[in-house]
């Protein structure tokens, strides 16, 4: 089994880092996720998760969503250098893994297009 994982440097960890993204983000939204992004001035993208109890009541569901988001982010090697915050909607808990992966791939493409345009 592969030991691939999302590196610590590729994560948003501090409240100030999240606030930076929330201030003036690029947005991408569908029925499963809201993805906010903002250029970070670093040579790599970083990920932050905001999966609330309001939209995924059980810890098992929240953890499943977080695992899927992290893996999708890790596999998206063509993502531009942005800080990304992913939030779920109430439909995210009911979706299959394949639906969530497909949704996230579309979000990464949208963010890249917006990044290039700005």
Relevant terms:
single chain, 118 residues, alpha+beta, Ribosomal Protein S5, domain 2, four-stranded mixed sheet, 4 strands
Structural topology:
Blueprint lengths: L14 H9 L2 E4 L3 E7 L6 E5 L8 H17 L6 E7 L8 H21 L1
Parallel strand pairs: 3-4
Antiparallel strand pairs: 1-2, 2-4
Helix pairs in contact: 2-3
Average per-residue pLDDT, rounded, comes to 91
Helix and strand composition category: alpha+beta
CATH architecture: 2-Layer Sandwich
Domain unit count = 1
Give helix and strand order, one letter per element, not per position.
HEEEHEH
User: Which range best describes the helical content: under 10%, 10-25%, 25-40%, 40-55%, 55-70% or over 70%?
Assistant: 25-40%
- Strand tally, please? 4
Low-confidence stretches: none
CATH class: Alpha Beta
CATH fold description: Ribosomal Protein S5, domain 2
Apparent shape: globular
Largest sheet: 4 strands, mixed
The Rg value, from CA coordinates, equals: 13 Å
Strand order of the largest sheet: 1-2-4-3
- DSSP summary: helix tally: 3
Percent strand equals 15-25%
Cα distance spanning the termini: 40 Å
């Amino acid at each position: 089994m592969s030991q691939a994982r999302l590196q610590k440097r590729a994560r948003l960890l501090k409240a100030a880092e999240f606030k930076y993204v929330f201030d003036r983000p690029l947005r991408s939204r569908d029925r499963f996720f809201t993805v906010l992004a903002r250029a970070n001035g670093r040579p790599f993208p970083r990920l932050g998760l905001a999966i609330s109890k309001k939209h995924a009541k059980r810890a098992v569901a929240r953890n499943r969503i977080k695992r899927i988001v992290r893996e999708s982010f890790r596999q998206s090697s063509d993502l531009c250098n942005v800080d990304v915050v992913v939030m779920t909607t109430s439909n995210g808990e009911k979706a299959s893994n394949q639906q969530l992966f497909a949704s996230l791939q579309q979000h990464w493409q949208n963010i890249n297009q917006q990044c290039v345009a700005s």
